[in-house]
């Protein structure tokens, strides 16, 4: 079959890499793709803007694409699945009304309240002064969130009441995220350890994927501003069997059931960003409607089963007949970024050492912001590479990933040195 993968990040590279291993897939169009994807077997990059749903749809029709897989949230929230389905094209993901779980924090929070899904206590405001009064009454720490999509930057954790009021002005008055700031959610600050819990659904049936943990802040020890994610590993030890069962029973099943009852069945990947409180109680920080980036990199590297089978079963409503298996190995992905990211950074730096790393076993370098030129790869974005390794233990996976990272270099490269440390701490291997 001919497959189209929409997006250009490390997650999409991992999706292309995994799909290209399927004997059922003969060709993959990566739209727009990146430098690294060009080197994958079966993959051709096509330069179409992912906002241009009409052109994407035309391309799929003209090139007889049998299946489209969407990486990022924006096209899903904009209704790419509706446009494709209306043209009788097979596409994996939620329709626009179901993608609201990520597209609108207000919708997601109200839905959770209605379904009794555990989440931080909250109120919604469309008037900044009312929001500030509420903050004063509640006190700090407190969290202020823009309603709409804000490229992962719309949630501001505030240590003081003053900071929270400034966050309200930033989002609602200065409109830092445009219309996404017409409304805000103000919510209770939750303490605990975070985990990413992804499932695939066909609207009724659910198969959970392997657990994982992201590292959002840019510096070690979770310091500095939030990024799209600086690294991830799988499985996440904080997701114990007890937490896993609670997450399925209290969060995933009610969410899938609730969306079906609303008349907007959720098909695709549902990603619950969890805060595990007291190591026992999962609460939802956010829902996403797609694979995580960088969580997809370690999860897909661990996956033994053919991803095409699960995707087709999701589209056809037959996930109950499907099974997803994993290798026993753990996986760790360290993101190498441009110095300065998530603020401003320089592009066009030559990347050294990739040939050396290509010789390593159980290591795969997923590209994000790279371009390929005649003499090699150059940086072209904030997150540049996701260096991902398997290991028979999580420690082995982490050590192998960092061994590979140590061979790669460009001017002003930045990466965290503590990806996976929370897992090692739980195993008593570090303080
Ligand atoms: P979100 O985009 O809603 O997932 O928020 C981004 C990040 O902000 C999360 O990964 C958490 O680290 C943090 N965060 C969001 N909501 C809360 C909360 N209620 N309590 C504590 N931290 C939060
Ligand atoms: N890794 C966070 C996200 O994909 O939203």
List the helices and strands and how they pair.
Blueprint: E1 2-7, H1 10-20, E2 27-32, E3 43-45, H2 53-62, E4 67-70, H3 73-77, H4 80-86, E5 91-92, H5 96-103, H6 105-115, E6 122-125, H7 128-138, E7 142-146, E8 155-158, H8 161-173, E9 184-188, E10 193-202, E11 206-208, E12 213-214, E13 217-219, E14 223-226, E15 231-234, H9 241-261, E16 267-277, E17 281-288, H10 296-302, H11 307-316, E18 330-338, H12 354-358, E19 363-367, E20 370-373, E21 376-379, E22 383-391, H13 394-406, E23 413-414, H14 421-426
Parallel strand pairs: 1-2, 1-4, 2-3, 4-5
Antiparallel strand pairs: 6-9, 7-8, 7-9, 10-11, 10-16, 12-15, 13-14, 15-18, 16-17, 18-22, 18-23, 19-22, 20-21
Bound molecules: adenosine monophosphate and glycine.
Adenosine monophosphate binds at residues 120, 143, 145, 155, 157, 187-190, 194, 216, 226, 273, 285-286.
Which topology of the largest domain does CATH recognise? D-amino Acid Aminotransferase, Chain A, domain 1
Shape descriptor reads globular
Q: Could you name the ranges where pLDDT drops below 50 across 5 or more consecutive residues?
A: none
> Regarding CATH, which class of the largest domain?
Alpha Beta
What's the β-strand tally?
23
CATH homologous superfamily assignment of the largest domain? ATP-grasp fold, B domain
Q: Which kinds of small molecule does this entry bind, naming each only once?
A: adenosine monophosphate, glycine
Residue share in β-strands: 25-35%
| Radius of gyration, CA atoms, in whole angstroms | 21 Å
Please tell me the total number of domains.
4
Mean pLDDT: 96
